[in-house]
């Protein structure tokens, strides 16, 4: 929050250094963003370790962990096929990391004065890097498996000869847009939801500070923000799923090439 | 928008910490723990499949032995039936034979008795003849006063009697 009475919905995305660190000429300060990345890591690690009893008859926690791995495994198998097995750890890491980071962003830590949660996936310096990583893996796998034949991806089967240049151009553009759509979709979904919540939150605060009319606005905003929060929880899961699913689909192109 | 305003300042830091965190997630959790969990799941699936197959085999075996048992039961039942039939047949034959023997014995006795009766009757008849002849000659002499030789009377009576 900036000054009293003025609520800045963008302030929640500010990265603030906690421990300044330097590696040579580079600034690798430990920031609130880094802190929340580490919290996500700790949660994921805790979740996985609790399910590592490896019993023949699983307990509840082990069932949850096996359900998660089975879910990703199915997704990879269905979309890539048996060859997708070696990409499963990557897809799993993506899904689990994005889901945890998204959900952590909705953690209502702000009820404690001074504390503030930070949504790491609302920064395209995070989502963009993940998208570029996925895209690079697709390129590496594609060229490693098919060599220059990988370019035939831009010419779908059954394209008439005359149409080849046009189709190839369109396909090339749509292919190159992939990392941007991948990274931006997640980033935009997260930032939009959080701005919306902050704006309605400020309506409640300012409304109840105002007159009787403002109380009505505040009450309506309060009802609305409940719905938005529920929707955001859904969006968190969907965006993580979409990111992982699109990565598997792109990998499928690279592995199976039509 | 802090994401854009701060980008030059924070990008390296973001990249570094993301690399650290995502690297740990990928190399340790993704490549280390996840395959272990999957192997547990696979082992369990395999065990379940094996157990099901074993159960299926045991069931087939049970069915086969029941089939064999039923066959044996059927066989011994038909065997018993055959033995009983034979015994009955044999008994009937025996009875018939004994009956025949007894029949023959009785027939012989009857024939003997009949023969005896016949000889007795013949003897009686032979004894009757002289008496009849004597009576006849006496009758003739009384009626006619004529004497008839015993021989004549005898032949005549015989002729009449056997006549």
TrEMBL record, chain B:
Name of a matching Pfam family: ATP-synt_B
Signal peptide coordinates: none
Keywords: ATP synthesis, Cell membrane, CF(0), Coiled coil, Hydrogen ion transport, Ion transport, Membrane, Transmembrane, Transmembrane helix, Transport
Membrane topology: Single-pass membrane protein
Entry keyword Cell membrane: yes
Subcellular location: Cell membrane; Endomembrane system
Matches recorded under InterPro entries: ATP_synth_b/b'su_bac/chlpt, ATP_synthase_B_chain
Coiled-coil regions, chain positions: 52-79
Primary location class: membrane
Domain of life of the source: Bacteria
Residue stretches spanning the membrane: 12-29
Family per record: Belongs to the ATPase B chain family.
Subunit organization: F-type ATPases have 2 components, F(1) - the catalytic core - and F(0) - the membrane proton channel. F(1) has five subunits: alpha(3), beta(3), gamma(1), delta(1), epsilon(1). F(0) has three main subunits: a(1), b(2) and c(10-14). The alpha and beta chains form an alternating ring which encloses part of the gamma chain. F(1) is attached to F(0) by a central stalk formed by the gamma and epsilon chains, while a peripheral stalk is formed by the delta and b chains.
Functional note: Component of the F(0) channel, it forms part of the peripheral stalk, linking F(1) to F(0). The b'-subunit is a diverged and duplicated form of b found in plants and photosynthetic bacteria.
PANTHER family named in the record: ATP SYNTHASE SUBUNIT B, ATP SYNTHASE SUBUNIT B', CHLOROPLASTIC
This protein's name: ATP synthase subunit b
């Amino acid at each position: 929050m900036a000054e009293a009475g003025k609520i800045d919905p963008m302030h929640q995305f500010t990265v603030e250094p906690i421990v300044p660190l330097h590696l040579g000429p580079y600034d690798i300060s430990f920031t609130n963003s880094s802190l929340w990345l580490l919290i996500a890591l700790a949660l994921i690690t805790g979740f996985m370790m609790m399910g590592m009893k490896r019993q023949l008859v699983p307990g509840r926690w082990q069932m949850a962990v096996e359900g998660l791995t089975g879910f990703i495994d199915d997704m990879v198998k269905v979309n890539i096929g048996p060859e997708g097995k070696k990409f499963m750890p990557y897809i799993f890491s993506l899904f689990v990391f994005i889901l945890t980071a998204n959900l952590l962003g909705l953690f209502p830590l702000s009820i404690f004065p001074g504390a503030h949660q930070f949504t790491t996936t609302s920064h395209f310096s995070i989502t963009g890097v993940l998208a570029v990583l996925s895209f690079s893996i697709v390129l590496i796998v594609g060229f490693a498996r098919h060599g220059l034949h990988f370019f035939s991806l831009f010419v779908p089967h059954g394209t008439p000869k005359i149409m080849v240049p046009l189709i190839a151009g369109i396909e090339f553009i749509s292919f190159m847009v992939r990392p941007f759509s991948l990274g931006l979709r997640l980033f935009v979904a997260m930032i939009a939801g959080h701005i919306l919540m902050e704006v309605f939150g400020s309506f409640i605060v300012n409304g109840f500070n105002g007159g009787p009319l403002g109380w009505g606005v505040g009450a309506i905003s309060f009802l609305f923000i409940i719905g938005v929060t529920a929707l955001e929880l859904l969006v968190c899961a969907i965006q993580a799923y979409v990111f992982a699913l699109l990565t598997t689909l792109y990998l499928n192109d690279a592995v199976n090439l039509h | 928008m802090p994401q854009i305003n701060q980008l030059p300042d924070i990008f390296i830091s973001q990249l570094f910490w993301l690399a650290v965190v995502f690297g740990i997630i990928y190399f340790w959790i993704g490549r280390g723990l996840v395959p272990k969990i999957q192997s547990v799941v696979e082992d369990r699936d395999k065990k379940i499949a094996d157990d099901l197959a074993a159960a299926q085999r045991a069931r087939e075996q049970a069915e086969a032995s029941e089939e064999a048992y039923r066959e044996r039961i059927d066989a011994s039942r038909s065997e018993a039936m055959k033995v009983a039939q034979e015994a009955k047949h044999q008994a009937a034959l025996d009875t018939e034979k004994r009956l025949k023997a007894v029949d023959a014995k009785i027939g012989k006795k009857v024939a003997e008795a009949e023969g005896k009766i016949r000889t007795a009757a013949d003897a009686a008849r032979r004894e009757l003849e002289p008496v009849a002849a004597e009576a006849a000659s006496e009758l003739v002499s009384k009626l006619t006063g004529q004497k008839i030789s015993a021989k004549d009377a005898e032949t005549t009576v015989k002729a009449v009697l056997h006549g």
